[in-house]
């Protein structure tokens, strides 16, 4: 984990977090880069335990101890910003302490899925 303090909302290092809404995220990041946002230390912890890889983390200084505990020795940039910078960048108050841009894991093949004893097909599910 390496810390980088960012004071400029226009800094390109935090472009993954810019002007986020659910629709904007799905259109901009998910199809192109396979990214999703983990929006709390609890979600980040669970994602890491499931083997998902973080691309970066955006947080305020007051949440740093939680992030250090969860991330441990992983090589991931942690961008430290003020609450004002976080809100300016994302478009909303980041009240859960942090956001993490996470790489979406590779999906199993249809053959692998069908090896299971049960298969459920769900359509039009979001969030």
Low-confidence sequence ranges: none
Helical segment count: 6
CATH fold annotation: 60s Ribosomal Protein L30, Chain: A
> How large is the radius of gyration?
16 Å
| Spatial sequence of strands, sheet with the most strands | 1-4-3-5-2
CATH C-level label:
Alpha Beta
Number of strands: 5
Cα shape:
globular
CATH superfamily: Ribosomal protein L30/S12
Helix content: 25-40%
Folded structure, characterized:
With 127 residues, this protein is of the alpha/beta class. It has one domain: Ribosomal protein L30/S12 (60s Ribosomal Protein L30, Chain: A, 2-Layer Sandwich). It is 32% helix and 20% strand. The protein has 6 helices and 5 strands, in the order βααβαβαβαβα. Strands 1-4-3-5-2 form a 5-stranded mixed beta sheet. Helix 4 (64-71) links the parallel strand 3 and strand 4 (77-80). Helix 3 packs parallel to helix 4 (64-71). The model has no long low-confidence stretch (mean pLDDT 86). InterPro entries: Ribosomal_eL30-like_sf. It comes from Candidatus Microbacterium stercoravium. This is rRNA methyltransferase. Keywords: Methyltransferase, Transferase. GO terms for molecular function: methyltransferase activity.
Topology:
Elements: E1 2-5, H1 22-28, H2 30-33, E2 35-38, H3 41-49, E3 53-59, H4 64-71, E4 77-80, H5 83-90, E5 98-103, H6 110-114
Parallel strand pairs: 1-4, 3-4
Antiparallel strand pairs: 2-5, 3-5
Q: What structural keywords apply?
A:
127 residues, alpha/beta, 60s Ribosomal Protein L30, Chain: A, five-stranded mixed sheet, 6 helices, 5 strands, 20% strand, methyltransferase
């Amino acid at each position: 984990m390496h810390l980088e303090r960012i004071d400029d909302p226009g800094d390109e290092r935090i472009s993954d977090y810019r002007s986020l809404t659910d629709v904007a995220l799905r259109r901009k990041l998910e199809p192109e880069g396979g990214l999703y946002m983990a929006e709390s230390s609890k979600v980040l912890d669970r994602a890491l335990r499931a083997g998902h890889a973080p691309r970066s983390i955006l947080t305020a200084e007051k949440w740093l101890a939680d992030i250090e505990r969860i991330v441990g020795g992983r090589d991931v940039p942690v961008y430290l910003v003020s609450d004002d910078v976080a809100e300016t960048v994302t478009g909303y108050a980041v009240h859960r302490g942090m956001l993490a841009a996470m790489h979406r894991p590779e999906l199993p093949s249809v053959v692998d899925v069908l090896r299971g004893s049960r298969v459920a097909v769900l359509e039009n599910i979001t969030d």
